[in-house]
Amino acid sequence: MSQASELHPETPASEGKGGRVIPLHERKARIALAGNPNSGKTTAFNAYTGSRQHVGNYPGVTVEKKEGVFRLDDTEVTLVDLPGTYSLTAYSAEEIVTREVLSRETPLAVVDVVDASALERNLLLTVQIMEMGIPVALALNMMDEARRAGMHINSEMLGRRLGVPVGETVARTGEGLKEIMAAAVAFGRENARREPLRISYGPDLDPVIAEMETLLTERRVLEQWYRPRWIAVKLLEGDERVREEVREAAPEVAEKLQDLHDVVSAHIRATLNASTEAIIADYRYGYIRGVLSAGVISREGHRDRMALTDKLDKVFTNALFGPLIMLGILYVMFQVTFDVGAYPQGWVEDGFGWLGDTLSDILPEGFLKSLVVSGIIDGVGGVVSFVPLIMIMFLFVAFLEDSGYMARIAYMVDRVFRAFGLHGCSVMPYIVAGGIAGGCAIPGVMATRTLRSPREKLATLLTLPYMACGAKLPVFLLVAGVFFPGNEAVTLFLLTLAGWAAALLTARLLRSTVIRGESTPFVMELPPYRLPTLRSLLIHCWERTWMYLKKAGTVLVAISILIWAGMTFPTLDPEAAAPYEQRIGALEDRLAALPPDAAEAAPLNEAIEQARQELGAAELRHSLAGRVGSALEPLTRPAGFDWRTNIAMLAGIAAKEAVVATLGTAYSLGEQDPEDAAPLAARIAADPGWSRATGLALMLFVLLYSPCFVTLVVIRHEAGSWGWVAFSMLFSTGLAYAVAVTAYQIGSRVWG
């Protein structure tokens, strides 16, 4: 008896193997049969059901409805033959029917019949079914023809990458049909509450999808039929049917969702000259190409001409040359940033210096002048002066993202992630958080939503703050320029690698101790290469720069004012200040009594300046911030940090940009004569308390210590516990301290 005829015997069984009585609910299963037109789906349906078919039409449409019943071992299977369709986008009656059957009749599983010789095209439907959260088994049909054409498909590898059962079938002869159906039934029973496939749709769409998903989840819109993320994606695709359903179920939510759709659609048109639907399709096909890459398909003899993307990937993702090219690109990015950005950075510094001098001449002596000049101008100006460098870096990052190369970086980096207990999908959150210097930890944390495993998500959440985010760059740029002149690019490049190393090693530690568990399969989306438009690059660059400037103009101004107040009050007692003032007064009297060109004038000026600096230091140490910083000095001295640096580190917990702003304020308040004010870099370079070892320790500490306040709040939301927030703060700060102390002690011995 052939395999085909064995699928539908007439005599039902009541006992399983070994004589075990099968419960009634386990004896029945409803399976949907899906596939593209001409994939052999109808042939497979006929092979499964034989003459036991029921044919009619779906209500309200002329689309044929076919069901059949057959017995598979101890299970009675009702097989629903879905209309042949290429996708689940509601363009045709067939697509609408297919989607509604899957969402509302809730089959146990779907057997997706695909043409083995055209996998990339056929898998588009598979991916969309998986996004609905329905268990899928993949039938690679017409394998006889594929073999004759010299094609070999590693079905086991394909199954691992998709996370679904995969079987090779020949529907015409019945080969493999029973096996894949048995696998589908078992898979459906084991994965009744299967999480849907979550594909990243890029930096423009992912945040919008997450926001839509949150709105839909909170109001439980259409939850009886669809997953929230699936609805969000459909709305961005412009699916009118879904839009109408949402509008009927929750009009106020529909309005908010439409506003989000309109904003991101306009943005996509302006930057990429494309529709959101086209972008979604590109990323789906990119996902499929990632699934089929490297070993899934091989051909003997003649090979089809490769597409341009495939040709480029032969070079850019090569196991040997790919990582070298990647490191070269990153190094060039850093080098160009410093070489080109040095000129506009100097112009900005000069501009803030002129502004400070002008306001010093206009404003009367007192607290207002100190607040404006030392608190705001010197605090915020120290951060804003790095905007030209950051803009150049953002321009590079935008090019890497829009060209499609960023996904290749993620693909290559994934090769080492398994060794450290992380999921490959962790790559993108790391990159977003600053894996390529200039990102932000906040969207990086939110990007971990694409991770299916709670353990891998948690490990990623706790380690991605080690990346070189845009907020840390001002510190790195400042210190590297002072203590590593001529080697700024190398320094920033090595710091970026240090962040990755710290994240991976910490993840390995966590996954081996407090967050144990098996890793889940990984598939990386590989979108096609594009040549970005200048308009797109400039818009993306400006959006990120504007976010940075808004932070400098709001959060940093507030922090600068608070830090200034903490460094100013309480003021030094008149009795304590009197010796300094008497000394300064006496020196000034002696200077005034000298002839204009007297040789004794220079030493007296130096003595006056020294006395003023001592008075400024005494006032600062007496302030609230000075007392806190001084109290911490015995603890931080082994890392080379003085009380000023301690205050800056505390301010950095609020926002990392505040580190430079606070240093600027601290050193500005130490200057009594505004005309003698120098850029922060010059002040640090002239401070005997600083050294190259101190600079190295500071950069490493800033790289690793506690995430900023907003990031901690987002971690709390994603991790679901304040305990993990406390762990992130304490563990990261402890690690940063240990690394900084080690770096300073070694550096002091090497450099002196």
In words, what does this structure look like?
With 752 residues, the protein is of the alpha/beta class. Among the domains are: 3-190, P-loop containing nucleotide triphosphate hydrolases (Rossmann fold, 3-Layer(aba) Sandwich); 202-300, Helix Hairpins; 571-622. The chain has 33 helices and 9 strands. It has a 7-stranded mixed beta sheet with strand order 2-3-4-1-5-6-8, sandwiched between helices. α21 packs antiparallel against α31. It is elongated, with a radius of gyration of 32 Å. The relative contact order is 0.07. The model is unreliable at 1-6, 8-22, 301-306 and 671-677 (pLDDT under 50).
**Could you report the average pLDDT, rounded to the nearest whole number?**
84
What percentage of residues falls in helices of 4 or more residues?
A: 55-70%
CATH arch. level architecture of the domain at 3-190 = 3-Layer(aba) Sandwich
**Main β-sheet, spatial strand arrangement:** 2-3-4-1-5-6-8
Q: Beta-sheet strand percentage? A: 5-15%
Per CATH, the superfamily of the domain at 3-190 is P-loop containing nucleotide triphosphate hydrolases
Radius of gyration (CA) equals 32 Å
